[in-house]
């Protein structure tokens, strides 16, 4: 057997031809998003005795990722943990630690994820492994965004992007661009978010990375949704769901279904929207994705309040409050307090509603995007008795709306946003001509 290099850390001379064949077939199947097939090949590769520990660890890592994408999280964790302990190679240990961080993040265990990412980052810097450094910084950026620290999120993600561009890693660049787009969305910077998502989509299309294409279409649709371009938002989300069904991307479906539910409710198709929102909630809980569970509960509560179905909303808000405490993140505490305040107002408890909305405001200052902040200020302006205070909140809401609208480059998107009834109502009360924005 020749010494053909099949990895930066092991060569064909050290491994039998049969094991190498199984490994290569697994890599090929995974690149085609045939994850069940890849698992079988990787399992075959692990069945061969006397292969180097680093080979076993790397195969475990790759198989774990396939299990992850197939929503078998226990099997993924078992493989990632084995990849961490089988080999003494510092690079492999750091790689596996990042994967375990991604799993903890998905489950909503943000503190454990942060510890894993920080250890991996230290190991990656020591070993001068740009791949690990980039992945760890991406993970820390995602966590920062989820916790509401968007400045730290953008800093970490920009550093990760620089590392991957230095390496020429196209797929990893696109993954970071997706995360950057989400961080910009979380700041209400929708034009920057759309730019990042479209750049990511171009790369994923060039790589035929079908699952991540689905994810990016979902994210683009969510930006349109935030700007009240509901027709196009729904178009992106329906395409994403169709592709997710074709590709078997069940991991992505709760998020898509949640967005479709919001689109349909916005279009007045309330009952259909509720079906999708409930599907999203059930799917998120089945997968153990606490972030998507919380977001589904938030959107479901807001949908009920539009009717208003107060009793149903009350039950959902209680579940959201519990989910927010489990996640231990101000972003979700703010969302829970916001809908609790709206609920109390519908129940005729104006004073209690003001208290709850003020609590939401405190939690929201650094953790919630402008798209929620202007709505929160607008809601307070309706709830408070003091007209002077109401006017201040309307002015603040109008300022957030201006900050959202002015950077938008596409005239259609800007028009959809400033002429949406809730936005137009605030602009009119603030004496602002939407056509001048």
Keywords:
437 residues, Serine Threonine Protein Phosphatase 5, Tetratricopeptide repeat, disordered N terminus
Topology:
Blueprint (H helix, E strand, L loop, with lengths): L16 H15 L3 H12 L6 H17 L3 H14 L3 H17 L3 H18 L2 H18 L2 H18 L2 H17 L3 H18 L2 H17 L3 H18 L5 H14 L3 H18 L2 H17 L3 H18 L2 H17 L3 H15 L5 H14 L3 H19 L5 H8 L2 H9 L8
Helix pairs in contact: 1-2, 2-3, 3-4, 3-5, 4-5, 5-6, 5-7, 6-7, 7-8, 7-9, 8-9, 9-10, 9-11, 10-11, 11-12, 11-13, 12-13, 13-14, 13-15, 14-15, 15-16, 15-17, 16-17, 17-18, 17-19, 18-19, 19-20, 20-22
Task: Please compute the radius of gyration using only Cα atoms.
Answer: 23 Å
Shape: elongated
Return the structural class: mainly alpha
User: What is the CATH topology classification name of the domain at 209-286?
Assistant: Serine Threonine Protein Phosphatase 5, Tetratricopeptide repeat
Biggest beta-sheet profile: none
The run of helices and strands is: HHHHHHHHHHHHHHHHHHHHHH
> Which residue ranges are poorly predicted, with pLDDT under 50 across at least 5 consecutive positions?
1-6
Mean pLDDT: 93
What is the β-strand count? 0
Number of helices: 22
Work out the strand percent.
Answer: under 5%
For the record, what is the CATH homologous superfamily label of the domain at 209-286? Tetratricopeptide repeat domain
- CATH domain class of the domain at 209-286: Mainly Alpha
Corresponding CATH architecture of the domain at 209-286: Alpha Horseshoe
Distance between the termini: 69 Å
* Percent in helix: over 70%
